[in-house]
Design a protein that fits this description.
322 residues; alpha/beta; TIM Barrel; eight-stranded mixed β-sheet; 33% helix
Amino acid sequence: MHNTLPLLQATDFPALQRGRLGTLQVNLGYRCNQTCLHCHVNAGPSRTEAMDDATVELIPRVLAARDLATLDLTGGAPELHPRFRWLVEASRNLGVKVTDRCNLTILSEPGQEGLAEFLAEQGVEVVASLPCYLEENVDEQRGEGVFARSIAGLRQLNALGYGQAGSGLDLHLVHNPLGAGLPPPQAGLQAAYKAELKARYGIVFNRLYSLANMPILRFGSTLVSKGQFADYMRLLKSSHNPDNLEQVMCRELVSVDWQGRLYDCDFNQMLGLPLRGPAMLADLLTRDIAGCPIRIADHCYGCTAGQGSSCGGALDDSRCGT
C-alpha cells in the first residue's frame, strides 16, 4: 500500500485552532466485516487491533470530567468490540448522546443478534454507510451482496422506529463518491435518496451526510496506483471554500485511537499525526485542549472543498441547500 503522508505534509492549508471540546470520537478498533475501496481506515476482517478494557473504562470518566455532549463510536465496525454494549450503556447513563457509525451489514452478522434492538433501547443515533441507492454501485465499492444486506438492515431499523417521524430514533445515511470526484450537492442527493429508497424498498431515514473521499490509506493508495493522486489534490484545492473553515469538525471534536492516543480528527489518526497538546485519553481528565493548534496537511482540503465535509455531512448550507 502506498503511503500518501509524504505527499500531503508540505501544505498551504490555513492555520486552525481548537474551540471548546464537545465530541469524543473513539475508534474501538480496525476489525470490520467489510473491506471497502473508499475506506480511509484500511479496516477489514483480518485486522486485530482493539481497545483494551482499561482504556474503554476510561471513556465514561473523560465524558464526565469534560462535560461532553456526544460520544461518537467508530472503527472498523465498532459493534465488533466486545465492550461496545457496555460502553454505550455507561455513556447513556451519563446522559451523553451516543452515535454509532454503522455499516448496516453488521446487523446480520453471526454473534450480533439483538444489536438493532439494543441500539433502539439505548436511543443510540445511527449513522449508516450507504454510498448509493443503486445496488451495482454499492456492491462495486463495498463488496458483492453488501447492498442487499444493507437494505435488510435499514428495514430492521425502520421496524424499530428508526427514521420514523416522532420516534426520537435518528437514522442518518452517509454517501461517498464512487471515485475521484467531489460529492454532488447534499440537498439534492438527499431528496433523491429519500425518493428512491422509499419507492423501491419502503425505507425512510432522517438525513443524508455527503462526504468527500480522503486521499489517505486505501483510497489514497488507489489514487496513487491509478496515477490520479495529483489530479485529485488539484480538484480539492481548486474547490477550497474558506467559509467552511469555521465549521470543520476538528474545532470541537477529538479523535481517540484504539490505544488511547489523541488526534485532531479521524483522518489525522490514520496518518499518524498526533494532537499538539495532551497525548493520551487519560490526559483529558485534567487538561482542557481549547485553543490548541490543529495539525494540518493537504488532506485537510478534503473537508473544505466545495460544500465541505465533516462527520455531520456538508458544511456550507449556502452551497448544499440544507
